[in-house]
What does this fold into?
Amino acid sequence: MVPLFSPPLHRQRHQFVIDFIKRNKPKKVVDLGCNECTLLRRLKFHREIELLVGVDINSAAITKNMYELAPISTDYLMPSYDQLSIELYQGSVTQEDARLRGFDLVTSIELIEHLHLADVERFSQVLFGYMAPVSVIVSTPNSEFNPLLPGLTGFRHRDHKFEWTRAEFQSWALQVCLEHGYEVQFTGVGPAPPGQRERVGFCSQIGVFHRLGGRDAARLLPGDNAHEIFSYTLLYSIAYPSLRDNNILQRVLVSEVLYWAEQLKRGWLEEKTGEGEEASALCQTQGGGEERLSFLEEKQTGGEALKGPMEQRGRGTSECEEGEREEAFGTDCGGQQESYRQGRCVCVPLAKLWSCCPRVQALSGSVSHLSRFLLDDPLVRLTQDGSAVLVDDQEQDQEEEEEYDDLEDTGCTEASQCSLSAVQQEDWEADL
It folds into this structure.
């Protein structure tokens, strides 16, 4: 059978929501009647959303699919600055729950027709009166389109309690706006064949509601001092790893510092020994960091490059303090201090790490901030003045082991042991 719609109608409804989110960038979104979490699984990739919530009366449908909303391994290996928390609740959309008040967007996709008409009024009061979101998207079947659906008799789904005409849907929507202070635009997805659109409209009709006064009005919710109601059961909750978490930021930054310190050490050793002509180009090629930094370079704030996390928190040092720290390092942020040897270690200056490695720059914000991050971390060894990372020179250790092996091969070690044994024997005899 040839599909009536391409892409399928449910995907068109979900794409309508996604396009709305791309334009309006809501931070808190709840999907009423989330069922198998299909829409939520697509919305989790839109990181302008910070809190994503699903509600459904069918707990089995949620628990069967909720783990598909969990972070994947790359979310932990390469966390971004974006924040995302996901919560799933079991409950009825005709019941109030204080945790769902004041959201930026509420979606109700093909839900209202599953309610008894007696419950629709209660649903309207809970959604527009109690939850009072900034925006609402409601979609429902358009019964005028049904004659164009081949083989359909009655309602489109056995659980539907009603299916509205366009006039009935618009009458309900306009009454909601009048009672609760919203305005609405009507549209839909699944267009009728050419020449019949005016007569039957869209297969799924959609109302997009906006609260009068927008976010400012939503902050003044009625009954804020009333007793909070928690009627829903929390089934699932997960917070995605984010670089705004100081512990995660510390872990990722230390990992990057250790990786690039080792690369810079190897490049410096090759350059000193003349074994690698390409080593001197390590900083010029950003240490290969462009690919590792791709997700950070794509993030922009107001057209400017992403600031370091310390600046984002407002914890940055003053320009005077910054200058004093960097003067102590003997370089400014753009400087290229030379690595040097100290005992069995190679010292890689923080200033060189910062200027050569774009991701270290983006994560730390400045050389002084980098120093503060690393100062007390047990995985990183710094020089006494805190200006460089100490990296073990494994090649020197290997050379010493080879020299020791050579001594064993020449019999020097054995001879020394024989000599020592003879001396000890003489001493024992003298004591006797």
